[in-house]
């Protein structure tokens, strides 16, 4: 092996390591997620929600009467975390839980009127935020992006 001389150092050797990372899909997804998630968190905070409570409320409003376990599956969340999230929504008066008659261990979830109203407002604000953050993409681009991402991680439910 020969020793490297200073003159044999290439531009690639001196390139910042982030350039390699830019070629990785996972890194691009992480950066995009962080950007979208941070902006969404600030927006939701103004409504008294967090990402987890917004996601749960949105699903409950879309599927009133779904079971708490189904909510965990749809959100790819641990059941214990869903319990905490649902309790927060219930404490805020956004969701009510009802026991199922034939299986008293199971809870069905229903949005309250207040929950439906807040969900509609949050959905509108999240759509506007996403439109603003993705303004460089047209409708076809967005649909294609979602399609490609769903090929990596198919949606549940």
Automatic annotation (TrEMBL):
Domain HTH marR-type residue range list: 22-154
SMART domains: HTH_MARR
Entries under InterPro entries matching the protein: HTH_MarR-typ (IPR000835), MarR/SlyA-like (IPR039422), WH-like_DNA-bd_sf (IPR036388), WH_DNA-bd_sf (IPR036390)
Keyword terms of this UniProt record: DNA-binding
PROSITE patterns: HTH_MARR_2 (PS50995)
GO MF, any single term: DNA-binding transcription factor activity
GO biological process, one term: response to stress
Classification via Pfam families: MarR_2
Top-level taxonomic group: Bacteria
PANTHER family membership: MARR FAMILY REGULATORY PROTEIN, TRANSCRIPTIONAL REGULATOR, MARR FAMILY
Protein's name in the database: DNA-binding transcriptional regulator, MarR family
Source organism: Pseudooceanicola antarcticus
């Amino acid at each position: 092996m020969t020793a490297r001389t200073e003159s044999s150092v290439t531009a690639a050797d001196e390139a910042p390591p982030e350039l390699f990372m830019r070629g990785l899909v996972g890194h691009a997804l992480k950066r995009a997620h962080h950007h979208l998630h941070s902006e969404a968190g600030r927006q939701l905070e103004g409504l008294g929600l967090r990402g987890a409570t917004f996601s749960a409320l949105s699903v409950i409003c879309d599927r009133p009467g779904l079971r708490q376990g189904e909510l965990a599956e749809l959100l790819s969340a641990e059941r214990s975390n869903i319990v905490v999230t649902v309790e927060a929504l219930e404490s805020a008066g956004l969701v009510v839980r009802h026991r199922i008659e034939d299986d008293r261990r199971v809870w069905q979830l229903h949005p309250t009127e207040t929950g439906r109203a807040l969900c509609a407002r949050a959905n509108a604000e999240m759509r506007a935020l996403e439109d603003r953050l993705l303004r460089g993409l047209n409708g076809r681009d967005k649909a294609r992006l979602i399609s490609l991402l769903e090929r990596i991680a198919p949606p549940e439910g």
